[in-house]
Each structure stands twice: as structure tokens, then as C-alpha cells.
Amino acid sequence: MEKLRSFLSGRRLAIIAILLAVPFAFFGSSSFSTSFTSFGKVNGLTVSSFDVSVAITNVNSRLKQIYGDDFNAELLDEGVLNTLVKNEIINQKVLLSQALKMKLSFSELDAKKLIMSEPSFQTNGLFDQNIFEATIRANGILPNEYIEYVQNTSIVGEFLSAISQSNFSIKSELVNQIKIIEQGRNVKYFKIDFDSLKNSINPSLEDALNFYGDNNLLFMDEEKRSFNYLSLSQDQFKDIIEVPEGFLESEYEGYLKSIDANKQRRISHIMIEVSNYDSKEEAYNVLNSVELDLAANLSFEDAVSQFSEDLISAEVGGDLGFSSGDSFPYQFEEALDDMSLGQISSIIDLDETLHIIKFTEEDKEDPKPLEELSSKFIEELIDAESYALMIDLRDEIEDLILNGFSVELIAEQLNLDLKKTEPIYYKNNDISDDQRVKDFLFSIDREDNFPEILELDDKVIIAAINDIVDPISLPFDEVSDLVFDQLRELEASKLIPSMQQELLSNINEESFVSDNPSIFQDELSDIKRNSILFPQDVIDVIFSSRINEANLKTTSNSDVYIFIVSDILIPSEDIIRNFLPEYEEFSESTSLVKLNTIVDKEMNKNVRDNIINLNI
């Protein structure tokens, strides 16, 4: 009975992947003590190991939202995770206890219906017990605790939904928000265009040569390295692979067995619950009567609808989904072994329940002929064997390296082709364009000649440094453009402070006009927070400035903005009226946060918890 109807003891929510996968995959299924059936109580509600697992999931999910998907709980200080999980358990139990006090409920039948209707547990629109059981049982979750969790989660959901519908907005608050966010600024400003200023400077050749001589470090070559290396490729072993006698026949036999092992059989059933009758004999007689009706041309589907006492599966024609041989009770599996597709069984006794099953569908791959699969089998053989030979040779080379052999001696010992390079740069080399190879070559320790190994998907490289050419100053002729550019940038930077001072001094002078072509000046009205007329960091300073106060901001590209805010423009009543609907929608979320804070504070006033044995 339990085996058959385990799918009636759970709920597949949208969060099922997080709920089940994360706690076991991230922390490990034994990451907290499981030798206790209870971890204490909160407000009189028992805390189970499943509650702890769900709390770990929720905490981990929030931490990853904050710190990114690569977050590792081991980075937390000792005891921090314990505290976070404990608080999460308390919060969930407090919500549940409050909801129960309010007489909220969610029936077991409703929980079962959720399972049957969840697409993730369906195949071709029908509930698939095999998928459900694989998900639940693989994570060690007991059906009874899972259905209880479903009901409790739904109760809390109803409670939170009621809270969310209780939020409210005060119009005066919204109006103030609009006045702040939608206000504008009138701005008078100067802009020093750094690129324009830099390009207006024309250093002499003498200045450039002096700058080059004083700043050799800016114009150095990159380090170059030459290598001695060996390259092993999986392809070089493929021609020596031989296909053993009888290989194809053996592979094909295994292929046929795998098809048979992976077949899935689907059944429907009619169930009689023995406990509903005065005796098992009476229950048997009821189902025997159904069996006789089936023999007298009553359709199986009609029989399910009229007589089956498994109400949930009866809604879908008695369907119990697929089994690959181990999902149904063994009595069902044994009966199926002697049944053909469409056949109906005799009565099957499972002690507490009696059943008649129908073999409704078989999902089995049609085998392909050997001739069609031969090339695939041979290709897989050659691929596996050639890779194994390459790895064997790599292991042999590794042993030689540990015994002090150089790349040259390894090549001689194993009769391998030794390759040597001219000095090469990191970016441009004749070994490989693969970034992994470049990083490997230029990370080899330059202090010794110890060979190192890089293993790629189908290739192995063994390399050692032959020579290193340290960076040198490049001739002036090769870097003259860079020298002049760097010198212009330096000279422009020297001019900026005096230009800034002049502009700051004249920002309030209406008649001031700069004759410097690198200085742009203008006045703009009603600049908004989302304006694209200024860089965002300048906008931020504009909206934090006082009226008629001179401000200066240098941007990331070295442009300089000097400005004053001459007026702050508050939105008119018409503008406020137009924005109100949009802000009311936005305010729902903010007011809900406020309301939830109030509710949380009230519910946690008298929390009673004695959580124990929580050692994560």
C-alpha cells in the first residue's frame, strides 16, 4: 500500500529543484546530525531533520543570491551557518504556529491533487510515479513527513498571501517620493575634454627622446621563452588499435540487454482497501465481483471509475505511471512478467489492499540491426583504447620525470619526437593558440629545468624551459607613436589643475567665455536622474549638490566637469497626478516590506524555542 501510494504523500512545487537538490548536493546528505528524530521544538512544534534540510536550502539560496553561485559555506566563520539555519527554522515555525492559531488548514487531499497536476511529474500529460519516486526517495525523504511539509507550507502560504493583500499606501508618501525622484535640475557647467586637450599638444622630437630615455620601463619588450617539449595526441594511437574477434557480437548482445533492462511498463489499477470492510473475505468478494464484471465486457476504465477506492488515481483512469522493474510492488512486477500488453491480471493481494492491474503501455526502444551499429561500436572501441594508450604513456613519462629525467632524456628513452622552439612571446607562439597551453607554458617555474605536464581532452603536452629572454627596452623607432602619446597624456595632465582653478573661479561669471577649444560650456534645464547628457557619476553629484554651489567631478576617461546647480525643479501637480498610478504599484512592494517587518516583530515577541542537536 505504502509503495503504491507513496506518490500521494508529497507536493511538487515550483521550488522542488531547490527544495530537494540543494540541501543534499551542497551540504551533503549527512551534513547535520541525523541520529535524532527531533531537533527540539519552536512554539510547541517539533523540528525534524527534514525541517533542518529545508532551512539549510533556504539559507544557502539567499547566501548565493548575495555572494554569487560560487559561494562556499565553508567560508563562513565557525557557528555562523548554525545561527543562520536556526533563525530560519524559528521563522518558519513561528509563521506556521501563527497560521495554525488562525485555524488555517490545507487538506491532505488537496496536497495529493497538487502532485497529480504537477507537469514535472507527468509523462505525456499523465502522472508518472517513477519520476516522482526517483526524486523523493533518492533524497531520503519519508512520505509522511513530506506530505506534512506540503500541508504546512500551503498553510503558511495562505497566511502570507493574506498579509500581502493587507498592504496599504499613503498618498502623501507617494507624492513625496515623486517630488524627490522626478525632480529636475538646471545646470550650468564646463567640461574639459581630456582627449581634445591631449591631442592639441605637439611635443618636439627632442622632448619625446628625453621622455623615452627617462621612462624606459614604459617601453619594455615582453619576456620571451624557448621550450623543449613533447606532444602526445590520442589520434597517434588510433591506427594501431585492432578489433578483437567476437567484439561486435559481444557489444551487440550487451546493447540488446540494455534495451531490455531499460524498458518501462505502465499500469492502471483498481484498488480495494481491506480496512473499509468487516473482513478481508468481504473485501475479496467485492473485487472478485468486479473481476467477473470485467470478464463480462465491463471496460477497465468504467470499473476504475465505479469501484476503485484509490480516489486520486481513479481520477486518471487508475493510472500508476511507469516502472522500469523496481518501482511497483514486487507482486505487480512479477504479474507483469507474465502479462502481454493490454492484458488484465487476476486479483493481487498486498495484505492491506487488493488490486487488479492492467498492462497499459510499454516504453521500449526498437533495437537497430548489428550492421547499422557496427561502425559506432568500432569507433567507440578505438576512441576508448587510444585514449587509454595515451594515458598509459603519460603515466610512464610521469614516472621518468619523478626519477629526474629531462624532456630530452624522456624523448630518447621512449623514442619520442622532441620538439624545440625559438624564443616566443606569450601572445604569439608556434606551439598552440589554445589559451590553456599559453598559460601552462608561461607558468612553468623559470628557476629549474623540471618538466611539467599539461593534460587536455585528447592531448598531453610535456614541456620544460630551454631559455628565457628577459624584457629589454624597445628601440625608439618601434615605439615612437606610444612615446608621443604617453608624453601628450602627461603634459595634458599637468595643464588640468590650472584650467580647473580658472573655471571654478569663473563658474558664476555670466560673461565668461573660454577661448580654449578643449573646454565646452553650456547651460541645461530640467536635467533628470536618468539623463544621458552626463555620465552617471556626474549625475549622482549633480543630484546631491546644493543650489549655486560649485562642484568638480573627474570621470573615468579623465574628462573634468565643473558645474553649479542654478535651480531645483519640483514636479507640477499634473506631473505628480500622471505618475501616481506607477508609484502606487511600486509602493505595494515597499509597504509590504514594512508590514512584514511589523508582523514579524509581533509574532516573535514570545517565541519559545529549544532547538538542539543542530551541528551543521
CATH class of the largest domain: Mainly Alpha
Task: Measure the end-to-end span.
Answer: 36 Å
Described by the principal axes of the CA atoms, the overall outline is flat
Proportion of residues in helical segments: 40-55%
Low-confidence runs (pLDDT<50, min 5 residues)?
A: 1-37
Q: What's the main sheet like?
A: 4 strands, antiparallel
Strand order of the largest sheet: 14-5-16-15
Query: How many domains, in number, for the residues?
Result: 4
Beta-strand fraction estimate? 15-25%
Structure in words:
The structure is a single chain. The chain has 616 residues and is α+β, with helices and mostly antiparallel strands. It folds into 4 domains: 2-164, Triger factor/SurA peptide-binding fold, CATH 1.10.4030; 184-220 and 477-569, no CATH class; 224-242 and 371-469; 264-363, Chitinase A, domain 3 (Roll). The protein has 22 helices and 16 strands. The protein has helices at 2-5, 16-26, 49-67, 80-101, 108-117, 129-138, 143-164, 171-181, 194-199, 205-214, 235-238, 247-262, 280-295, 300-307, 311-314, 330-337, 370-402, 407-414, 435-441, 476-506, 536-542, 573-603, and strands at residues 41-42, 45-46, 122-123, 126-127, 184-192, 224-233, 264-273, 319-323, 348-349, 353-363, 419-420, 452-455, 459-469, 519-527, 551-554, 560-569. The chain has a 4-stranded antiparallel β-sheet. A hairpin with a 3-residue loop joins β9 (348-349) and β10. α2 crosses α3. The longest helix has 33 residues, at 370-402. The chain is flat and about 110 Å long. Residues 1-37 have low confidence and may be disordered.
